[in-house]
């Protein structure tokens, strides 16, 4: 009887807590529930909100939210092709059509003598498409996502970076197409130059990210940026050796006794990256037509490529950090400017 | 107790542009300068919110309370000052912000959860809970653009509360969905409180604030007016800021050519001298000066009380013999005494009238001529102060008139329960 008299409390009150735990906390309660919430516990991370923008903190936040970057990229991709009949096919159709146009213009009409011109074109176009797609999409991305930016706190650079992510996915698809084309046309890439590709790709992604982050922030304040970017990107495209080989630029400079100024042309970070892709995948730097040797690409070895790409990479990283500073400065007023 | 949110000297300036020059051409024309009027949405706001506290922020539209919340959340950067937040934070400023209409509910849970800072693995673990909470089991794979607004908001809330942050910021979002869902939301807020999480609520709903918050901050024009317990804070908010029921006393003269003229009307109450408001249950007297140009045998005094929404709370019975009186030439004072005022919060305005029972032409009526204010220091909400006497009786199981009381003595679930029956 005395034992029985002690029992009622647990019997009557037991169902309530277990039912609750099952309903809401379940197995997660140790992580999200009481274990984390000891009152007075002082070892929690302290977030400071003030007018300053520290780059180190930004980088940390970016890293912590990498899951979100993947999700935002996936979202952009899904939304991009959601209601189109051909869907992801567009990511291949679009560059394929561009390729076809350039091929017709430069090979069939302008009759250049470059062998396997389509492949050469494709190698450079790949690089350009990644940069171009990302920069164009990133310019408008903060404005387009005003709803989130105004109501949710998260590292907003992720929006711009997700545009780069989308471009990177499209890039990957196009690389697959390029490899298939290489097999079909029987072209062997130069294997010693393969080492340059990872550096080139990394440099390209960092450089693209820097430009994208910068443009996405500026466009919030100056909506002209979108239109200006379009025009500038078009000019930029024709300034890099994609539809014409680098050798023609070098030759033209030499003809005007400016041969020693080739380095100025190589200052454009996209150029060495495009050259690396062309050199590796296209597999040759010169060709012979009717006994005349034409130089298409610089006569560098893999180590020279790596050195130049290394410089581009370092410069890109610095640019990226600078763009984060600019973004941080401008970000403070996003919510009111949108 | 540790401080969860420390707001020190926060100021936030908005620029009100007379004209926005967002195009390059306009910027160049105006030399890159844009004329603007500075507007301080927040001025030197200082507040410390303790861990485990539920803190309410009250204020009129545009007083800066949402701006403060956005600053705490990190959405806006303050112009000066600093905010320190201890622990993880989630802000519910708008439910379903960041939903992509083109994506399915499933994808949106992941997207929104990530935006609120929940790692992917955690979202996967809580996915079923979130869906169950939002009551969207059969629609979760549909595109969100086909959701009704209720479904949309429910999903938003379900994701937000499942983030389980140390600090939760809530901006006017508790009043969503149907009654059942609202109760669910409030239940969840209570659960958060029990778990020792810090909650900051911005609301106009004084009832919600009163029942849930431990302290209230009242803001006006970007400044802190007071930080106090809910009863006093709500009183300050209703009286000083909303100015509800503030009367226009300009028209105090009598009606031309009338026998009666009601002069000044005053309210006296039990708390006079110590405070301007009365507590529920205290006494109230309305005293009206009356001038009379002629003696009136059977005058009837009437009184009406309106609340701050101008809805009638009470009007006296015109046939009540207790309201009949004889008014001599020259007049005097009419007194309406209420032994106790059974009203809860609010500012109430009083209308006083007098007329002759026989001659309809002889009358005067002063519409909403004075007001009194009731402030409830307790947590009861509503309009009327009812004092229920609560008792408990065991459920009867007897079949006869004699009611046996069944008392459970013991037994673990599954084993027989010993029962004793007493009568």
Descriptive overview:
- The complex is a heterodimer of chains A (338) and B (423).
- With 338 residues, chain A is mostly helical.
- Chain A has two domains: 2-36, no CATH class; 55-337, no CATH class.
- Helices cover 71% and strands 4% of the residues of chain A.
- Chain A is built from 17 helices and three strands.
- Chain A has helices spanning 2-6, 8-13, 15-25, 29-32, 55-64, 66-81, 90-109, 117-144, 146-151, 157-185, 196-221, 224-239, 246-255, 262-266, 270-282, 302-331, 334-337; strands at 46-49, 286-289, 292-295.
- In chain A, a hairpin with a 2-residue loop joins strand 2 and strand 3.
- The radius of gyration of chain A is 27 Å and the shape is globular.
- The termini of chain A are far apart.
- Chain B starts with a strand and ends with a strand.
- Chain B has a six-stranded mixed beta sheet, sandwiched between helices.
- Chain B has 423 residues and is α+β, with helices and mostly antiparallel strands.
- In chain B, 22% of the residues lie in helices and 34% in strands.
- Chain B contains eight helices and 19 strands.
- The model of chain B is unreliable at 244-255 and 408-423 (pLDDT under 50).
- Chains A and B meet through helix 1, helix 2, strand 1, helix 6 and helix 9 of A and helix 1, helix 2, strand 4, helix 3 and helix 4 of B.
Provide a compact summary of the structure.
The complex is a heterodimer of chains A (338) and B (423). With 338 residues, chain A is mostly helical. In chain A, a hairpin with a 2-residue loop joins β2 and β3.
Distance between the terminal alpha carbons of chain B, to the nearest Å? 51 Å
Strand order of the largest sheet of chain B: 5-6-7-3-8-9
Q: What is the count of distinct domains of chain B?
A: 3
CATH superfamily of the largest domain in chain B: P-loop containing nucleotide triphosphate hydrolases
Strand count, sense and closure of the main sheet of chain A? 2 strands, antiparallel
How much of the polypeptide of chain B forms β-strand, as a percent range? Answer: 25-35%
Number of structurally distinct domains of chain A:
2
CATH architecture of the largest domain in chain B: 3-Layer(aba) Sandwich
The percentage helix of chain B is: 10-25%
Low-confidence runs of at least 5 consecutive residues of chain B: 244-255, 408-423
- End-to-end Cα distance of chain A: 72 Å
Count of DSSP H/I helices of chain A:
17
- Mean pLDDT of chain B equals 80
pLDDT average of chain A, as an integer?
81
SS-derived structural category of chain B: alpha+beta
The sequence of SSEs of chain B as H and E is EHEEHEEHHHEHEHEEHEEEEEEEEEE
Main interface by residue count: A-B, 64 and 64 residues
Stated plainly, the CATH topology of the largest domain in chain B is called: Rossmann fold
Low-confidence stretches of chain A: 1-42
Number of alpha- plus pi-helical segments of chain B: 8
């Amino acid at each position: 009887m005395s034992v029985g008299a002690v029992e009622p409390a647990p019997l009557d009150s037991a169902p309530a807590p277990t039912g609750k735990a099952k309903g809401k906390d379940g197995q997660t309660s140790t992580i999200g529930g009481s274990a984390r919430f000891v009152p007075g516990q002082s070892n929690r991370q302290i977030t400071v909100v003030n007018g300053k923008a520290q780059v180190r903190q930004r980088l940390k936040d970016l890293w912590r939210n990498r899951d979100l970057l993947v999700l935002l990229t996936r979202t952009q991709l899904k939304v991009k092709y959601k209601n189109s009949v051909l869907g992801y096919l567009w990511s291949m159709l679009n560059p394929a059509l561009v390729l076809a146009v350039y091929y017709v213009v430069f090979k069939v009409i302008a009759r250049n003598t470059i062998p396997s011109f389509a492949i050469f074109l494709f190698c450079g176009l790949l690089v350009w498409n990644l940069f171009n797609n990302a920069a164009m999409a990133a310019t408008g991305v903060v404005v387009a996502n005003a709803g989130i930016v105004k109501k949710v706190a998260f590292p907003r650079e992720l929006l711009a970076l997700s545009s780069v992510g989308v471009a990177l996915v499209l890039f990957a698809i196009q690389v697959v197409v390029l490899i298939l084309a290489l097999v079909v046309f029987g072209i062997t890439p130069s294997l010693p130059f393969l080492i340059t590709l990872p550096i080139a790709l990394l440099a390209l992604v960092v450089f693209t990210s820097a430009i994208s982050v910068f443009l996405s922030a500026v466009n919030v304040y100056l909506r002209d940026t979108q239109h200006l970017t379009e025009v500038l990107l078009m000019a930029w495209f024709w300034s890099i050796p994609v539809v014409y080989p680098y050798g023609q630029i070098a030759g033209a400079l030499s003809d005007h006794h400016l041969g020693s100024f080739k380095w100025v042309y190589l200052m454009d970070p996209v150029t060495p990256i495009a050259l690396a892709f062309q050199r590796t995948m296209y597999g040759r730097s010169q060709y012979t037509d009717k006994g005349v040797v034409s130089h298409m690409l610089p006569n560098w070895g893999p180590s020279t490529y790596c050195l130049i790409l290394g410089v581009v990479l370092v410069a890109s990283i610095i640019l990226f950090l600078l763009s984060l500073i600019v973004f941080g400065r401008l970000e403070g007023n996003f919510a009111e400017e949108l | 107790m540790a401080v969860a949110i420390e707001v020190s000297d926060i100021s936030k300036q908005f620029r009100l542009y007379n004209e926005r020059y967002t195009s390059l051409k306009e910027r160049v024309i105006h030399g890159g300068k844009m004329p603007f009027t500075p507007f301080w949405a927040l001025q030197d706001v200082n507040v410390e919110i303790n861990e485990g506290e539920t803190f309410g922020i009250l204020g009129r539209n545009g007083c800066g309370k949402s701006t403060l919340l956005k600053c705490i959340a990190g959405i806006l950067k303050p112009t000066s000052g600093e905010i320190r937040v201890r622990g993880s934070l989630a802000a519910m400023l708008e439910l379903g912000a960041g939903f992509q209409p083109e994506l399915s509910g499933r994808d949106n849970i992941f997207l929104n959860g990530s935006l609120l800072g929940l790692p992917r693995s955690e979202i996967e673990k809580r996915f079923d809970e979130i869906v169950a909470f939002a009551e969207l089991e059969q629609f979760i794979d549909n595109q969100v653009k086909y959701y009704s607004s209720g479904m949309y908001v429910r999903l938003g809330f379900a994701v937000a509360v499942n983030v389980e942050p140390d600090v939760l910021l809530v901006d006017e979002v508790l009043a969503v969905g149907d009654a059942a869902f609202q109760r669910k939301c409030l239940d969840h807020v209570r659960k958060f409180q029990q778990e020792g999480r810090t909650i900051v609520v911005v609301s106009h709903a004084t009832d919600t604030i009163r029942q849930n918050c431990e302290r209230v901050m009242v803001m006006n024009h970007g400044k802190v007016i007071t930080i106090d317990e809910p009863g006093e804070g709500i009183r300050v908010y209703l009286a000083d800021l909303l100015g509800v029921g503030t009367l226009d006393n300009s028209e105090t003269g009598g009606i031309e050519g009338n026998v009666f003229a009601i002069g000044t009307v005053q309210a006296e109450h039990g708390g006079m001298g110590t405070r301007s408001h009365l507590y529920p249950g205290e006494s109230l007297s309305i005293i009206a000066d009356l001038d009379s140009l002629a003696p009136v045998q059977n005058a009837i005094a009437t009184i009406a009380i309106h609340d701050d929404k101008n809805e009638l709370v009470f009007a006296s019975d015109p046939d009540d013999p207790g309201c009949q009186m004889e008014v001599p030439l020259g007049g005097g004072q009419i007194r309406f005494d209420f032994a106790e005022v059974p009203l809860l919060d609010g500012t109430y305005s009083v209308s006083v009238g007098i007329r002759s029972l026989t001659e309809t032409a002889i009358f005067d009526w002063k519409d909403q001529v004075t007001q009194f204010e009731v402030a409830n220091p307790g947590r009861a909400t509503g309009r009327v102060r009812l004092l229920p006497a609560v008792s408990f009786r065991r459920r009867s199981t007897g079949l006869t008139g004699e009611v046996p009381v069944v008392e459970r003595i013991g037994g673990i679930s599954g084993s027989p329960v010993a029962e004793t029956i007493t009568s």
